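Quick one - inputs below.
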Amino acid sequence: MNALGFERILGGVCAPVGFLAAGVACGIKDEGKPDLAIVYSERPATAAGVFTTNQMKAAPVMLSRERVLGGSAQSVVVSSGNANAMTGGRGVADALAMVDAVEKALGITSGQALVASTGHIGEYLPMERVLSGIEQATDELSSGGNTDAAKAIMTTDTYPKELAVEMLIAGRTVRLGAMAKGAGMIHPNMATMISVITTDANLTNEVMQHWLEQAVEWSFNRTSIDGDQSTNDTVVMLANGAALPEGYEMTRDEAELFFEALCWLTGHLAMALVKDGEGASKLMRVVVNGARENLDAIRVAHAIANSTLVKCSFYGSQPNWGRIAAAAGSAGVPLDQSLVKIALGEHTVAENGVPVAFDEGELREILKRDEIEITVHLGLGEGSAYYLTCDLSAEYVEFNAGEKS
Amino acid sequence: MNALGFERILGGVCAPVGFLAAGVACGIKDEGKPDLAIVYSERPATAAGVFTTNQMKAAPVMLSRERVLGGSAQSVVVSSGNANAMTGGRGVADALAMVDAVEKALGITSGQALVASTGHIGEYLPMERVLSGIEQATDELSSGGNTDAAKAIMTTDTYPKELAVEMLIAGRTVRLGAMAKGAGMIHPNMATMISVITTDANLTNEVMQHWLEQAVEWSFNRTSIDGDQSTNDTVVMLANGAALPEGYEMTRDEAELFFEALCWLTGHLAMALVKDGEGASKLMRVVVNGARENLDAIRVAHAIANSTLVKCSFYGSQPNWGRIAAAAGSAGVPLDQSLVKIALGEHTVAENGVPVAFDEGELREILKRDEIEITVHLGLGEGSAYYLTCDLSAEYVEFNAGEKS
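Output:
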């Protein structure tokens, strides 16, 4: 184990004991691209979930959200290429038919399958293909199917995203695994993100729900993919307890370690999603300090991370810090501009609200980096927050002007 | 006079009697581009103004905002190429030196000149050049200087924007004139808009302030240039009363006519700003009906008008109405998706929250138009609102990735 107390391992969602996965191409997408994944726990598992707060929730979100409240689930089916959103009663019936088919094929109790979908909004699912895909995927489930599954949930991602870690708890090896699919764009804007997290720890669903909400808040919700906004955003977690004695209760230290590992996992997946944002060429970490309270800092960081002009500046590697100041000022948070300090990487560019002399050539070199830290100190208190974002490129626009992208 | 009761005339800010203007190049911008404008009323005038609510207000905004509270002003100086924002005490001193120079050159009472600036943030003004520009502009003031002035306030606009109308009030011809400069981009985002409006009506500053606020709310504030957001947004209005007998009070009908004309003027300038947005190829008018209240409708319209994905769809002429639905759902307004109806132009694409069959080829033709109406009916009440926006193009991104754009 490393200094963190956990270690990265291979295996994605299949790394924890007792989890199988598969990914197949069933014809939702064109050209035989993989578009249906199933994750399955061989034993009953507790479940937790975090879902979009968009008012136009997709049918699978409505269904899975309700099921997670029951506290347990043994399988998750994810389809990509069609979001099953804005599809009314027929969409709900289709989502239900998907989980029914999974439960039947796997022989699990009714109500124990969850569903998530991602893709184009406002089209009905091709159910014949989807159901035959479910049949095929359940047939192909294996402990080595994690990468196939991670590939099958992709939409505009350029590579599959999966991670796993292991740690020692009560002298046993406990594992956490995850896969995620990214967002169209790194903007709080309809870009669906889906993640499935698995563990062989045993957790009550109350504890797991609480931890998952925290972990999502500090990762996916700080990437300006913003789980709040898409019709389909879904993060679900299953814990099957296979690694620990039945009824084992973690000590406080063990619980802390596990939670740290969960946050590391979601944090690194969130970073991967941002880096793989459509047309993104660099990752920007916006850090806001010195706010009156954390909530103020979050609002300011969000405004900067989502400013189109700021994102364009970074695409062009321009040290245009005035746009950062203006974005901060537009957050609706009372500020005193004479106290504001702004730094790009290690270079302070403004202090006390006025420009500071800097070597423009040196700064341009910093701005060409793959990862850039933007630090804004408001000088008002102890509140702080961070946000991950990426630059906005012409490639992004061309991509999203395309058909059904 | 036309059916509206007023008629479009030439002359911009110089159309009303007693107003002179000039625009010169003083070296704030490179390559001898015009960058300083002055508008001057030969007689004392009442004043009103609407300014940005950004927390990082530029020095000229702080100064002019305070002066407008005094209720009168006889001149406005506008510089472009440098926003005099994030420039601290030195910026305030520079703004003050500008109005002092104007007052001295024109021989008007101290406190009767206003100032606005637009351009790059975080740089000090080249005051020697600015002051000599003020000298030159005051020398060149003329009743035909309106277009020179409109050109001198431009930053990324591709053409000057000015309008004027005349109407009959108390048997006299009363005129309203205006010029405006657009925003970097049609997004609530640091894009400075500046407008100067003149009239030879006589108005108390209380009435004029109220009317101007309403007119701005229904025009510039509904274009997703969003006056709330830039460091420098400024709309100022001067009324010198030259066309009407001293102390004349408009009848209710006359006041309505004048207010209508003012709204027509600001509305058409706002449309011109949107059409001339950087890289914009089409104008979209987002109309939201059936909200519980107008405020809800505004929030939903704003969310749609500012969705990067929606704007990209229209750039690509794609009938991707799911993005419109998702943007509406992300506005934070409680909705019932089963009641939602969406139309593009005259074609309904979704009803009761589900897709409606439509001729995709026909719809694509509509989407290729220069102006497109997006109508969303929420089915919840009588609240309605509209928003003007434009598409987001790859050209926009390339432009804003450039140096000091």
